[in-house]
Each structure stands twice: as structure tokens, then as C-alpha cells.
Amino acid sequence: MKLSYAGLTHKGMKRSHNEDNLALLPDESLYIVADGMGGHASGEVASQMAVETIMNFFRMTSEDEEVTWPFKEERHLRYDENRLVAAIKFGNQRIFEAASREPRFKGMGTTIVAAFFTRAGAYLGHVGDSRGYRIRKGKIRQITDDHSLLNDYIKANKLTPEEVGNFQYKNVIVRALGMKENVQVDINRLEPEGGDLYLLCSDGLSSMIDDEQILSIAMEHDDLDEACRAMIQAANAAGGSDNITVALVEVAEL
Q1: C-alpha–C-alpha distance, residues 59 and 108, integer Å
Q2: In degrees, to the nearest 5, what angle opens at C-alpha 20 toward C-alphas 15 and 26?
Q3: pTM passes above 0.90
Q4: pLDDT tens digits for 72-94?
Q5: Where are the domains of the chain?
Q6: Is domain 6-253 classified as CATH 2.160.10.10?
Q7: Quick one: residue 93, left, alpha or beta (phi over 0 = left, psi -120 to 50 = alpha)?
Q8: Dihedral (CA of 49, 248, 119, 126) sign
């Protein structure tokens, strides 16, 4: 599978610093976006810790497939799915332990969304409200399911369409790395096709511009770096109320 990729992060128009983190690892065919949270810049610590832990786990298990994992494999998952889930759980463990040990890190956490491409296909793992999308043949589909209070209310039919727009707890997430000692990781199996474009983003993008705007920008730019810049510019033009991170991965050929 031949992949093209690009990524970009920006602090937005309202925040003084950037608590998002981004990693593009072509050697591992692994792409990660994390959106940290917590006071006194601890969100930045959490997102960086998550990204670095996942990267290091992948490098370690690439070099030695027999290395002992910190978590048991889940029987219903394939090896590569388990590898991604274990890496994310390991990130959760490190953040939770640091937050429990250091008073200045108390309450820190991060979302995570990571795409891992293999010969057999691809896998998308996530926790929180950072999103993964697929753009195929001029159509966009959100693959991930937001772990947010708003989404829980929507799925339970507790809000009318009008109430959704005015919901005052839009930014409350119900699952993140570092919140608890153990975390449930959602995993999606993907079946890539040539020409597919996969987007990973923090909610600084998806809360500012809608899916159709994202699709329009992606379709207008053949160059992935330019597409990333255009998406961030659009989010900032819409208010830029949060940090914005975008990663694009195109399946050039299978």
C-alpha cells in the first residue's frame, strides 16, 4: 500500500498555547492526533505523553514481535488491532500514573485518534472526541463516534435539533486517556480503496466547520499540505476557538 500524508497543527485564534499533538510515522504507517486537556499546560503534557508512548510502543514491537505487551490481547481482535489498542491503553496508563503521582498534573488527560495501515487493511483507534473521517469518491463519512456528553444525549434522543445547537455542555467528553486507570478503546476496521483520503482531526476543526466544508476543501486541493493549511484557515476564519490539528493520509495505490 502506497500512502501520501501531511499534517499541521495551530493554536487557533483564542488560545495562548497549543495543547494538541500530532505524529506522522510513515515507517510504521501510523498517524496520530491528540487533543490534551488540563490546567497549567498539563494538557500539552498529556497529549505529548500519549503520542510518544504510542510511537515508542510501535517501534518496540516492530523490532521484536516477541516482546511482552503490558496488556493481554483481546481474542476477538486481530494482531494489528490488538497492537494499536495496546499502544493506546499504554498511553492511558502512563498519563493516569503521572497525574496520580504529580499534583501539578492532576486532572490532565487527552483524546486520541490513530490510524494504522497494514498490508491486510487499516485500523482506526480512538478515545474522546477527536475524529476520523474517510473521503471516498466525493463523499465524506465520519468513522469515529464522539465520546462526548452531547453525542450521548443525541443518541438517547434527549435533545431536539434546536437544543443541540444551544447545548451548554458541548465540550464535555465522557471518555479520554488519563481519566481512569483503565480505558475502553474503540477500534474500527477499514477497507481502504485506491484514492481514499483519511482525515484525523481535533475538535478545533470539526467544531468550527461542518463535514461538507471539510469535504469541499479536500476536493479543492490535490496537494495534502495545502489542504491541511486550508482547513486550518477555514476553522480560524470561523472563530478559531480552540487548537486545531489536521492529519491527512491518502491511499495512492493498494
Answers
A1: 26
A2: 150
A3: yes
A4: 889 899 999 999 999 999 999 99
A5: 6-253
A6: no
A7: alpha
A8: positive
